Amino acid sequence: MSFEFNRDDTFTKYPNPYRFENVFLAIGAAAALAGGIASVIHAREFFMVHEDRVALIVVAVAVLVLGLAVKLLIQALSQVRFYLGRKFPLGLAGELAVTDKGMGEGADKVLETLRHRAIEFPEPRGALESLLCSLVKDLVTSPTEVRAAAVQHFRALIAMGALLASLLVSYLVFAGTSCEGFASWLYLPMSGLSLLTPFMAPDRLSPSDRHDTPVAETGDRALTKLVGLVVFSIMAPVLLPRVTPHVSIAPMWIPSALLLGGSMISSGLFFAATLCHLGSARSTDVSCEQTTIAMNCPPGQLWAAISRDFQSAWERAIPNRAYANVPPDVSRGERGSFSGLILEETQPAPMNSSQLSSWAEAVHVPYARMLLVLGAWGIAMAAFCGWTAARATEQFAKMSATEISRSILVIMALGMVAALSFRIGHLLWSRIEFRSRLVWIETSGVFQTSRISVGNRFRSNVQSSSTLTRVEGATLRVWVADIVSVAFGRDGKRTVIAMAAADDTARSTVNSLVAFAANQCVVPALTAKRDLARASSIGRLSAAAHVETTALG
Fold first, then answer.
1. C-beta separation of 200 from 297 below 8 A
2. Calculated CA dihedral for residues 34, 257, 378, 62, nearest 10 degrees
3. C-alpha 277: how far from chain center
4. Distance between CA 378 and CA 28 in Å, rounded?
5. Has residue 139 got a pLDDT over 60?
6. SS3 for 320?
7. Pick from 291, 306, 288, 289: which is nearest to 516 by CA?
8. Spatial CA neighbour of 171 closest among 104, 256, 245
9. Is 179 in contact with 276 (CB distance < 8 Å)?
10. Cα–Cα distance measured from residue 102 to residue 343, given in angstroms and rounded to the nearest whole number
11. What average pLDDT does this structure show over 132-159?
12. Which residues pair with 345 in a beta bridge?
């Protein structure tokens, strides 16, 4: 998408909402990069002493760690400069071009929001979402992205907690038995899937998601899995020795425990930050002024006055967002009914109150404090991943295959937890609140046309006639609301979280349109100076001819 620049715009000076996150990303990337480079140096040393197999394994580990560093670095550099041009944020509905007529996609939902003076939110779905919404009442009226993320991580915490508890029970039961290795390996795929759940549908909670409301899973499956884990913990000590082969496998409890424990800390911090800053709907007031209107002109002529009024109220000389423009049509016959509507929104302006000015301020704000801790946790996991890679790869030549496998799995677990910590925190760092004004004007009624003539047909040389469209007792309604909306990222879908009445604006708009309609002329007349001069000359000539005719008679 292109970027429009105007030197008078103040939106381009809006603080970068990712400046705190970028610091965490850069430090985490540096820590992982140091570990990856150290691993590459170790691989070089192994190649020099002809330990080629070990060297190749070390190179694979280095690629994993360096891949994490590059990913974090790319994200940080991509967010260094933040532009908020005139095209951002996205509209509440499909926007119309200047010459377009009709209804934009989704404009009917905006109209219903104003008409009912109510913001629509989806009902809770499933057992866990209903439970969470009953515990946190304001979550029901929070932005859809926040609610979906809270439900998702609440479900993930329950699932990972149950899996970790099952792992601990299995460790206590199978420790020292012949089935310990097999039982521990069972938890590796289950732990990996529990961590990868937030990555399974990346667009669902992405800040740049432009589609409909993100929908979190109901969580009913999580309850089923929870019951299955309980049954497994009870029955496994009896059944596993009877069905598993008697093969000596080294136990792998540590990678699964790190994966689950680290993921639970990340999800817990994000969940706490979400609950500290729900941003639920605060007010839903809308101004509505209704009156009757009479005019001696086509009702579509009101659109010219409306357009001028809209332009005079542009936010910082930036054109409004047009969502609906249906002018009244009276071309179907000499009489009939008509209706028309127009819906526009002023340019959304970012609210400075939604941004943090310094680190000290961020520490004192509850949700920001949780995000800072989450960022620090991501740095710790990235640093631990790099340090473990550097230390472990140095000893690979002295390790057994089992120990090498365990070390690689631990490094992968730490890297995945670090990536998860940074990824889930990005949603809340992207939050930006905007203020704007919605104006909806609609008119409907009955019209009839007739022909009117002015002037003396027998003695005057100047006559005028016109077709008159008469409107009597038409309905005029004006709806106005000052709204606060929130978007996650400059190109993320916006959600209205507050509406306030603007009675003075609605009343003045109605009075202006009524006065405009009452002052419309019925009789056409010459107004140009040259036309008036020619008409005067024709009049004098006509008078002279009349005098001459009278004298001859």
1. no
2. 20
3. 16
4. 7
5. yes
6. coil
7. 306
8. 256
9. no
10. 10
11. 88
12. 321, 438
Residues 6+ apart with CB under 8 A from 205: 145, 148, 149, 152, 198, 214, 427
Q: How far is CA 170 from CA 195, 229, 240, 480, in A?
A: 20, 11, 11, 62
The residue type at 29: A
Percent residues over pLDDT 90 in the chain = 37
What is the model's pLDDT at position 336?
Answer: 83
Report yes or no: 428 and 206 within 8 Å, Cβ to Cβ: no
DSSP 8-state symbol, 8? T
pLDDT in tens, 73-103: 999 999 988 877 778 888 999 999 988 999 9
Q: What percent of the chain has pLDDT over 70?
A: 78
Report yes or no: 325 and 100 within 8 Å, Cβ to Cβ: yes
At a CB cut-off of 8 Å and minimum separation 6, what does 200 contact? none
pTM of the shown model? 0.81
| Dihedral pair phi/psi, residue 486, rounded to 5° | -130, 140
Cβ proximity of 348 and 323 under 8 Å: no
CB neighbourhood size of 211 (10 A): 9
Q: How do residues 500-518 score in pLDDT, each as one tens digit?
A: 999 999 999 999 998 888 8
pLDDT at 521 over 80: no
Rounded to whole angstroms, how far apart are CA atoms 414 and 67?
A: 13
Helices 401-429 and 180-200, axial angle in degrees (round to 10): 30
pLDDT tier for residue 214 given thresholds of 50, 70 and 90: very low
The conformational region for residue 336 under phi > 0 = left, psi -120 to 50 = alpha, else beta, is: left
81 contacts 69 by C-beta, under 8 angstroms: no
Is residue 438 a contact partner of residue 322, using CB atoms and an 8 Å limit?
no
- For residues 477 and 441, the answer to whether their CB atoms sit within 8 Å is yes
Which tokens sit at 373?
Answer: 């801790």
Q: Strands, E, within 11-148: which ranges? A: 102-103
Decide: helix, strand or coil at residue 444: strand
What gap in Å lies between CA 295 and CA 293, rounded to an integer?
Answer: 7
